[in-house]
Amino acid sequence: MTPALRLLSCVSAFLLAASFASHAQTTRPWNNKQCAVVLTYDDAIDVDLDNALPALDSVGLRGTFYLIGSSPVVARRLPEWRRAAQSGHELGNHALMHPCDGSLPGRSFVTPDTDLSKYTVTRAVSEVRAANVLLSAIDGKTDRTFAYPCGDRQIGGTYFYEQLRQDFVGARGVTAGLQTAAQVDLANIDSYMINGQSGDYLVDLVKKAQQSHTLLVFLFHGVGGGHGLNVDLKAHRQLLRYLKAHEQDIWVAPMVEVAAKVKATQQGNAKPRG
């Protein structure tokens, strides 16, 4: 072999190894699949149990249901929530009273009793922890994630979740975006809020996550009605069918499992190299 061919062979081998290493780095956080998808459902409403949960169970997929501790649907249908947890779905924490910042524009729906801008940080933290006690009584678990009501993270300029970091594996926000495991902020995980978009739009988001090897989080409220923010049953079904048909390439899991994987990956990457 001539020196030129030997050099070309070495360069080719190096590039091939680098390609494999890059692919492994991008897919390893997602259980060696192309991407991760998390299906989240907010507010503990009847359609969670009537529509969303049966749809997930019918195709063997698991999601995260962010429960408001004071929701009458939690109290009235507690055995069904417990069965959902036993089936592998996560019961996430969406606070005790779902307080939102009433001082922001477009917040006329916020009542004086649930106005986060009038809370103290201590009150907000205490209510979130009280909701955790309730959820643990339902599912017997201690590991779970949090979702900011209305996406509001601050009280008087203070990020109240800073006092809750040890209580949760992660917290879901409302900023849309696709992120690699290294880019994910576990105190404010990106998500796409869905309200009226088509099934094609939902599937296209998944395809983008597959191509970019990123985390995609869907934020649903009503599924087939039941809330002012809604996804059509047909569109929701189309998304689930695509995920099921491509489960060999897409890791679909509750937020608590994906966040734990992201955390482990980030900590592993942060270890000093000897």
UniProtKB/TrEMBL annotation:
<feature type="signal peptide">
    <location>
        <begin position="1"/>
        <end position="24"/>
    </location>
</feature>
<dbReference type="Pfam" id="PF01522">
    <property type="entry name" value="Polysacc_deac_1"/>
</dbReference>
<dbReference type="InterPro" id="IPR002509">
    <property type="entry name" value="NODB_dom"/>
</dbReference>
<dbReference type="InterPro" id="IPR051398">
    <property type="entry name" value="Polysacch_Deacetylase"/>
</dbReference>
<dbReference type="GO" id="GO:0005975">
    <property type="term" value="P:carbohydrate metabolic process"/>
</dbReference>
<dbReference type="InterPro" id="IPR011330">
    <property type="entry name" value="Glyco_hydro/deAcase_b/a-brl"/>
</dbReference>
<dbReference type="GO" id="GO:0016810">
    <property type="term" value="F:hydrolase activity, acting on carbon-nitrogen (but not peptide) bonds"/>
</dbReference>
<feature type="domain" description="NodB homology">
    <location>
        <begin position="35"/>
        <end position="253"/>
    </location>
</feature>
<protein>
    <submittedName>
        <fullName>Peptidoglycan/xylan/chitin deacetylase, PgdA/CDA1 family</fullName>
    </submittedName>
</protein>
<keyword id="KW-0732">Signal</keyword>
